[in-house]
Amino acid sequence: ALKSQEGGNANEAIRYFHKVLALAAERYEVYRQLGDLYAHRGDTELAIKSFRTYLQQFPEDPVSRDYLFALEFNRAQDLLAADDLANAAIGFSAALEIQPDSPTALYYLGYIAYAQHHPVQAGQLLNKAYAVADTSLQQTIRPLLYNAALTLRKEGNHLTALDAISIL
């Protein structure tokens, strides 16, 4: 399997790695290899599934966690670009489970909540994002927070509106 992988034959390597798992199901490190192969092949769903299986046994592997975060995040961005807000939100939430303080995942979840006319939720998420974001992302977040607060104020939710911009 490793020889096939090194030789650039992903399909053959995947086939051999599955044979390894059939013979020795406890070889969870194989799922890391499969995740990488699937990702390079463009099979995002199988890559995510493989990395999740691997990380159940090796949760402290930072490289694999970052890889899984990137796969989830990029899939969510693709869904957002396709205007599939509901599934994009699921994807960004999955990414956030992997990196709970990700300002960009929090930002996108707040943006989606705002776009779906949920200003309270948008304010909460965007405030969390603002607190951990760099200056550039904060500049992007600021107008959304003001707009969420404005919407809440128009709805008569003055205290909630103030909460939405309390971090600014």
Can you walk through the features of this model?
The chain contains ten helices and no strands. The chain is mostly helical and 168 residues long. α3 runs antiparallel to α4, α8 (119-132) runs antiparallel to α9 (135-154) and α9 runs antiparallel to α10 (158-164).
- Class of secondary structure makeup: mainly alpha
Spatial gap, N to C terminus:
54 Å
- Total of helices: 10
Mean pLDDT: 93
Characterize the main sheet: none
Helix and strand element order: HHHHHHHHHH
Extended strand count: 0
| Helix percentage | over 70%
Low-confidence stretches: none
C-alpha-based Rg, rounded: 20 Å
- Overall shape: it is elongated
Strand content: under 5%
How would you summarize the topology of this molecule?
Elements: H1 2-6, H2 10-23, H3 29-41, H4 44-57, H5 62-81, H6 85-98, H7 103-115, H8 119-132, H9 135-154, H10 158-164
Helix pairs in contact: 2-3, 3-4, 4-5, 5-6, 6-7, 7-8, 7-9, 8-9, 8-10, 9-10
Task: Give a quick summary of the entry.
80% of the residues lie in helices and 0% in strands. It is built from 10 helices and no strands.
Identify the notable features of this structure and list them briefly:
168 residues, mainly alpha, 10 helices, 0% strand, elongated
